[in-house]
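pasting for the record
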Amino acid sequence: MKEDTNNSNEVGKVCIVDRGLYISVVLQNDCDSLILEDSFISIVERPKHIVFNLAYVDKMNAQLILSLKAIIQQIESLGMSVYFVFACDSLDQYLEIDPVGKDFKVRPNLISILEEINENATKNDVDVSFIKSFVNATVRTVFVQAKTLAKRESLGMIDKEKNLLKGDISGVVNVEATQYPYVILLSFPSSTFINLINIMTGESYTEITDDIADGAKELMNIIYGQASLSLNKKEDFRPNPPEMIRGTVFPGNESIDVVTKVTTSLESGVMMSAVFTSKVGAFSLCFWFPDARVAQALIHS
C-alpha cells in the first residue's frame, strides 16, 4: 500500500505531506539531497515525527545517505523519531546489512510505525523538561538560522569558577519570577561565533566587530522564545530583554544592570552547562539558579 499524496508539497522530487501525527516524505531515486536538506528547515521550526516513504526508491547514493543521517540526528535531537517504510526487498536488505543502515528505523508498514509512536508517547508523556526545552530550542535555532547541525555532547554541573564564562562572547537572559528565577547564558568562543555569523550573513568577518556582536543576544532571544513555549505556564516567569557580554568573566552589576535583579555573581548559586559541537565549532548553554531548591524545581518541571 502506497500513501496518497494529495494536498502535498512537492519540490525537487521530494513530496512532503503533513499527516497530523507525523510528516510523510516521499522520495524518488533522483532526489536532490540539497533540496531535501533545505526542505527540512521549515519542518525543524515545528518538529514532528518523520516517515520516509521509499516506495519509489530502489537505491541510495552516498550523498543522499549522508543527508538522511543528518536529518535523523537533527529530528531525534528534538525529541522526535524518523522512520522508513515501503522499502523494496533489495533496499531493505541493504539497509539491514550495511553499517550505514544502523541509524535507519526501517518498518514493514505504517501501522507498526503508528503503534510505536503512540507507545512512546504513552511512556514519555507530552511534557518536556526544563533543560530539554532549551537544548531542543538551541539545536533548532542554530539549524534554522545558520543551516548548521548542532549536537549536545555533555551536560554537567559547574562547581568552581562559575563567573568564568565558556566563551568570548555571550548572550544572557535574566528571568525574574516569584518562586523560581534563573539566568540563561549562551556562550561562544570567538572562532565559533564568527563562523556562525558568516554563514548567517554571507559575509567574511575575521573578528568580532560591534556590528555583529549583538548577534549573541539575538540568538539567545530566539532560543528563549522557542523554549518558553513548552515551559511551565503556572510560574510567572518575567524575562528581561537579552544582554550581550564581551569577555570571559561575568561582569555582575558593575557593567550589566539587568542581572542585578537576580544576581550580582554566578558564584553564589547552582550552575549547569550543556556543551554543543557543530561544524562551525563548539559552544555552550549555561543555566544559573540562585539555590538548589530552585534548580531542583525547574530541572524536574
